[in-house]
């Protein structure tokens, strides 16, 4: 049996918000497998509503731009982190963001490593970031990076307050027919945080995990065995409606889905991305 260490308990508590005894019990049942322990916690309904999984205590902004590409348009978005919102909202930090996104677009960079190595006035973007850290007297770094491409690209940049730079950027690539609803869908992505474009894009292991959690939760609730499969399918469908963009209820008209919007135009959504300050992987 795996040893349940204090570090393992702390990691699971940080990710789920569950109490110490619940975490220890789940880890013991899962023989130290933290992914399985998280499933057990979800199935028993003890995960805290304010779970902090995947979040980090950092400020900053999201810089974004659209350029013309060989097959239409390309959208880029980069998260730039500072330690405080005081620095993030300064004109100098906003200008720093504009400089970085221009370098990213010129290099056609699509991940953090490519962004760091992209040419800039200081040498590379990584050099520019180091100079910014010295200028602002704070740790400054590159966070999440996204790139989408298609005949039409739409970007919506959301500010949580008037004095702050964009902290959420939603991008969607569509065909020409879908361009007419692209802005509305970008707003949807910003507000509703979908994870996948279509049901087919959801990884098989994620679906299996959700199915297992739904089954165990139904059993824990004492549902009759013969109706559990139907309940599980209902819960899986609810998961898809929450997590899959084309299956989400359209926020401005609950009688239709986002997929219905595209059907009405005869258009297609090709890909999307959403970046929010402070929601990437934790720093090592």
From TrEMBL:
Annotated localization: Cytoplasm
CDD domains per UniProt: UBA_EF-Ts
MF annotations from Gene Ontology: translation elongation factor activity
Chief location: cytoplasm
Boundaries of every Translation elongation factor EFTs/EF1B dimerisation domain copy: 76-278
InterPro entries: EF-Ts_dimer_sf, Transl_elong_EFTs/EF1B, Transl_elong_EFTs/EF1B_dimer, Transl_elong_Ts_CS, UBA-like_sf
Pfam families recorded: EF_TS
Keywords: Cytoplasm, Elongation factor, Protein biosynthesis
Chain intervals for the UniProt region annotation (Involved in Mg(2+) ion dislocation from EF-Tu): 84-87
The keyword Phosphoprotein is annotated on this UniProt entry: no
Keyword Transmembrane helix: no
A GO cellular component annotation in the UniProt record: cytoplasm
Task performed by this protein: Associates with the EF-Tu.GDP complex and induces the exchange of GDP to GTP. It remains bound to the aminoacyl-tRNA.EF-Tu.GTP complex up to the GTP hydrolysis stage on the ribosome.
Family the UniProt entry places it in: Belongs to the EF-Ts family.
Protein name: Elongation factor Ts
């Amino acid at each position: 049996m795996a040893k349940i260490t204090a570090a393992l308990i702390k990691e699971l508590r940080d990710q789920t918000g569950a109490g110490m005894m619940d975490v220890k019990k789940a880890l013991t049942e899962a023989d130290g497998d933290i992914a399985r322990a998280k499933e057990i916690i979800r199935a028993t309904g003890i995960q805290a509503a304010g779970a902090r999984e995947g979040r980090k205590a950092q400020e900053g902004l999201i810089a974004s731009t659209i350029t013309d590409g060989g097959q239409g348009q390309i959208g880029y978005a980069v998260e730039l982190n500072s330690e405080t919102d005081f620095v993030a909202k300064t004109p100098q930090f906003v200008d720093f963001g504009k400089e970085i996104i221009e370098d990213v677009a010129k290099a056609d960079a699509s991940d953090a490593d490519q962004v760091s190595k992209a040419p800039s006035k200081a040498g590379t973007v990584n050099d520019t970031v180091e100079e910014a850290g010295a200028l602002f007297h704070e740790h400054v770094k590159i966070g999440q990076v996204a790139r989408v491409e298609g005949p039409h690209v739409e970007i919506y940049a959301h500010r949580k307050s008037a004095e702050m730079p964009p902290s959420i950027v939603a991008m969607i690539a569509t065909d020409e027919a879908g361009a007419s609803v692209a802005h509305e869908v970008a707003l949807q992505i910003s507000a509703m945080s979908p994870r996948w474009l279509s049901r087919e894009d959801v990884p098989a292991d994620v679906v299996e995990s959700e199915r297992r959690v739904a089954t165990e939760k139904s059993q824990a609730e004492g549902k009759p065995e013969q109706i559990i499969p139907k309940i599980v399918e209902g819960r899986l469908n609810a998961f898809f409606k929450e997590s899959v963009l084309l299956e989400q209820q359209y926020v401005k008209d609950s009688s239709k889905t986002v997929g219905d919007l595209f059907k009405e135009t005869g258009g297609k959504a090709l890909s999307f991305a959403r970046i929010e300050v402070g929601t990437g992987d934790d720093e090592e």
